[in-house]
Amino acid sequence: MSQALRTFGRIVARHWPALMAWYLGGEALHRLLVELSGFVGGHTTLGGLLLLPLAVAARLVSYVAMYLTVRPSLPHSRREDAGGIREFGSATLAAILPFFAFYTAWGLLDVDQIDFFRIASAIALADSGYDLAQVGDRGGLIAVGVLPVTVLVVALVARLLFTRFADRLPRWTIILATYAEVLWTFMLFTLVARWWNGVLDWFAEREAVGWLQGFGDWFAVNLAPVAAVWEGATWLFGILVAALIVPAAWLTVAGVIFGTTFDSTPSFGRWGGGATRGAAMSIARTLVMRLEGLWAAVAVIWRGGPLLFGVYALAYAAWGFAEQAGTRGALQLVGGHEASFWAGFFPLVTVAVAAVAEPLRVAIVATAYDSVIGRPQAGLDTRPSGLDDEAGEVGVVALDVEQKRPVGVLRKQEDEQDAVRGRLDGA
């Protein structure tokens, strides 16, 4: 516990200004890109769709930068050969899928798309003289149809081509590969969310649902204790989601960014001999390596043990309470004003509070992650991320080369190095 507190204090003392700057930069760029995509979407929905994923990517990049910034202060997760644009690009690519999943599940993707539609529709209606028949292919309306599916397929094919020919392309093309990954992932989660909302609406219109609602109302009126138990269980479920699932999700995102690996390669990674080559094997290798990295990051949640995760969840809950209290206190300090005042001032208050709170959240998550990596029984380690390690010779090494030295020897050497480094720090 004392080492975790020292790690947390070291992160805050060394990196708070940088973390705050990365967060504010990401939020400013996110807002700017939402406005720009809405403006373009007011003239062409396709153009807006091509820009809107960059708004989400702006927040992703800021969080990747925040976690990589604190890595040198993590005693068990730092690597001397880590750092630079190569690790940054690879970490961003690896974090796209889990970050978008969390972003969608928490409702933030819907917020961005609502803002996008509000801006684009206002521009399109004004340009068309408020004649819906003249709006045409503009206005920012995103629905399940040919356009989003086509964008998804084209972006996915482009991403696979970048994967296949990564060793032949200039290094700067990782920017295009990252954009293709962001675009197809954004469209995938958008279509899934639209489909799921359609399913929920279909169920809401069924007679059985109305009967169940009437049955629940009868219980609420005639059997108040049962209704109280049901409401209490619903409230408890919401508390558990906020107290356990959300911090676990952030721990997974951090694990993906840091490049978590198993000390021993899982069984699903030891396949695919060196004889088979070509596009299919390159794509399969990419999927296997991504799944292995994601699974290792998820394993961080339980391999730290219930005590460590419980302490982390309590610290995260305390952070959440303090963040809400800070926002409420700032709003009360400003006092009552008309709605037009709060329309412009409320976002500034929330961002100002978050600029103080987000570095603390990163410090809490990074400290918990490093504590798990520091446990030898966890069987986890980190690696410096290379330039999109999914292609070329790196992918062959990851799957086709057997380990030359026993895992235990390597782990023992790393523990001895950490011990020596600790003595030097204390001297």
From TrEMBL:
Bilayer-crossing regions: 7-25, 45-68, 88-109, 140-162, 174-196, 235-258, 294-319, 339-357
Entry keywords, A to Z: Membrane, Transmembrane, Transmembrane helix
Keyword field contains Transmembrane: yes
UniProt keyword Membrane, yes or no: yes
Coiled-coil spans in chain: none
Name the record gives this protein: Uncharacterized protein
The species this protein was found in: Microbacterium phyllosphaerae
